[in-house]
Amino acid sequence: VVSMKADEIEDLPLGILGSALVGRMAGLSVSGGTTRPGSAATLTIRNPTTWSKDGGTNDPLYVIDGVEQIDPYTLNSDASAFNNLDPSEVESISVLKDGAAAIYGSRAANGVVLVQTKRGQLGKPRISFSSSYGVNDEIYRSKMLSAYQYAQYMNIANGVYGKNDATVANLFPEDELAAIQGLNYDWLDQAWSASHMLRNTVNVSGGHENVTYFAGLSQYNQNGNLASLNYNKYTWRAGADIKVTAGLKIGLQVSGAYSNKVKTFNKIGGENDENDYKTLIETPRYIPPYVSGLPV
């Protein structure tokens, strides 16, 4: 069993809880969750292998406040509720492996991610507010051939020392080489800009001997490095623990989340999310993005 307190990550400007766990818990591998606004992180414990004729999963079982998170249609582990959690409403996160996960049966064959959310604390009402801001920008961009270099490369690749396909469609004659020598349209540079992340949270908790309460609200916004990408998420959680009589305690809790993600649907070469970036950086630089003010 590996555990951590959520206060180690609650001030990070991240909207996906799983992406904040990278490198923080032994045996837990985290991939994704940071590439694009709203993209979910994938968690795996150790190095699971699943064999199933119906398409198994390597996902661990998620248990939030004692409730197993199961997809009602596939009956597999469901990470939706976990991904909707904001670090400010989480008390602790534990990873159960091997024998420690056996208490949850066969569904825990790939391990268990155990989450305990915050509860009310005795004392006067305490209100906390946190705000964080981050900037995400490239540190390096792959260098691409200029328009003239690309034309020379295509002539070599399709010439007698390459594909030996001397059709007009595959070769650039001398007049075209001269015409594009001064061209260098960089589609990606025109579309790229630094992205920004803003996260705000507010919590209130308190109570006395018989009743304690907790309520929290969070807001997260992230735009993309390409103008057509954006993600907004709002989460809320409220709960109370009520001591009815000696030996009888009732816990009430309600939570919800709303998110809105704007993304591109670039179907050039398929529907992969990265096709917009790939198209912008790979477009030959003798092709202008606009002609007479209209997009190509």
Please explain how this structure is put together.
- The chain has 296 residues and is mostly beta strands.
- Helix content is 12%, strand content 36%.
- It is built from 5 helices and 14 strands.
- The strands form 4 sheets. The chain has a 5-stranded mixed beta sheet, with no helix packed on it.
- It is elongated.
Topology, pairings included?
Elements: E1 2-5, E2 28-32, E3 41-45, E4 61-64, E5 67-68, H1 80-84, E6 90-96, E7 112-117, E8 123-136, H2 147-158, H3 174-180, H4 187-191, E9 195-207, E10 211-223, E11 230-245, E12 248-262, H5 275-282, E13 290-291, E14 294-295
Parallel strand pairs: 4-7
Antiparallel strand pairs: 1-6, 2-3, 4-5, 6-7, 8-9, 9-10, 10-11, 11-12, 13-14
Defining key terms:
about 300 residues, mainly beta, 5-stranded antiparallel beta sheet
- Rg (CA only): 26 Å
Shape: elongated
Count of strand segments: 14
Global mean pLDDT: 86
Summarize the amount of helix as a percent range: 10-25%
The major β-sheet equals:
5 strands, mixed
